[in-house]
Amino acid sequence: MNIKSIQLAIFLVVVLQSCSKTNYIGKSIKLYGESDDKSLIQFKFKEQLNNLGHLAEPWATNSYDGKGDFWVNKNTFQKQDSLINSRGKIYTSKTDFTNNTLLYLDYGDKELLPITKELFFEKLINTARYTPIRLLHYFNDNIKETELTTTEEHTFYSLQLGDNLTRIFINPSNNSVEKITNLNYDELYGDVTTSFIYSSYIKNDYYSYPSQIKIKKINGKVIDAVEILSSKIDNPIKLLEEPENYQLVKTSIEKKPQITITKYNNYIHFIDLIHTDDKVMVVEFDDYMLVAEAPLNSKNGELIISEVKKIAPLKPIKYFVFGHHHPHYLGGLRAFVHKGATILCTDISKNYVETLVKAPHTIKPDSLQLEPRSLNTKIVKDSLTIGRTNKMKIYSMGEKSAHTKDYLIYYFPKDKLLLEDDLCWIPKKGAIKKARSREIGLYNTIKELKLNVDTIIQSWPVNSHKVKTVIPFSDLEKSIKIE
């Protein structure tokens, strides 16, 4: 090693030692304004909030315009706000963090929400949506548990908050917070990072604050924006009354998997997943199996596969198909990719499938994370016929479903049987009601395709909505004919 290399190494060691002794969190707190319990900074804001929903296309969002006020100091974050949806309906909420007590009145609720440990950390992290101040103080109070990392580009602190790995990135040249990131696990999307990015700082005689915050959710697939409109020093306020004997409540216990299997005929079986309220179809062909629908997550996909093996131990699962892209129908598809099944889907949902399959699941590894397999897809355009002796026909009805653009239905000509996901809402008891748009779309599609249907079977819900899952076609027809 030459002299210059040794000098550079010594310099880097000195710099790193210096950085490790520097409390950037403390310096950043001074930038945002040191305060006590006697006063708060009040901010007015407006925001654009976008949430994924059960909408017509993958990654489509419900959008809300919001506005409100929040108050913050060393030990406090309080917020009251309203959101307006695209139909003009207004929802309000209140949040009150004081020390380590969280009171939360959710949008549209009249009573405080019970606070679990998970919800406590979720709401604490979400204060970063409006200001880095509350998390800066929380990190500073727990500075011994944080990990400081210094690179050529960033200086950041990491802290585990429950199941969340949260990081604060500080610009060492001016002590401002550039961004805050939060990594946690989502059963559908895997390892998910939310980023709060701060810009357009405003400085007065007492404090600085970012007036523009961009929020990148689900690894940047969904974007929100917050704009700080004004600020002032204010006196403490009381937003919510703390109930007597306040304490965190226990997290609800995850439902144990509960299934029932029904043999419909010599080649069609149905698996009811009681714990998710879904019905899965298993079709046995001459030398392979097909599975239709797998709800919510890889764990349920694995459970379904184990039951399929009991039905036909020696036959591989050649195909997995889902009626449309909502989680109750494709959430378990990664388990089928791991088993080498070809995924049948529309061109609309193909990229979404690829995203789900490629998503890292390192926090809670599933079979595909532990043993990666390549994805094979087959596009269903208008229709697809599977099988020789017992034929299964898959039809794309798309927007005719009045639900999504990628909607598939399954028809068995020999049995006069049709399976669909969630289009028929015929009550178990009482009079049949006039058909709504989904029933009309299904009925018209059956007629247009000239399908001879005696029985319709619906995948969801199995029990929760008091509707039939095995539906005589005559019931659907009656609903159509009601004036």
Structure description:
This protein has a 12-stranded antiparallel beta sheet with strand order 5-4-3-2-1-12-11-10-9-8-7-6. Strands 13-14-15-16-17-18-19 form a 7-stranded mixed beta sheet. The protein has a 6-stranded mixed beta sheet with strand order 20-21-22-23-24-25. The chain folds into 2 domains: 21-234, outer membrane lipoprotein receptor (LolB), chain A (Clam), CATH 2.50.20; 261-481, Metallo-beta-lactamase, Chain A, CATH 3.60.15. With 483 residues, the chain is α+β, with helices and mostly antiparallel strands. The radius of gyration is 27 Å and the shape is elongated. α2 (24-32) packs antiparallel against α4 (133-141). β20 (383-386) and β21 form a beta hairpin. Helices cover 22% and strands 36% of the residues.
Concise summary:
This protein is α+β, with helices and mostly antiparallel strands. It is built from eleven helices and 25 strands. It has two domains: 21-234, outer membrane lipoprotein receptor (LolB), chain A; 261-481, Metallo-beta-lactamase, Chain A, CATH 3.60.15.
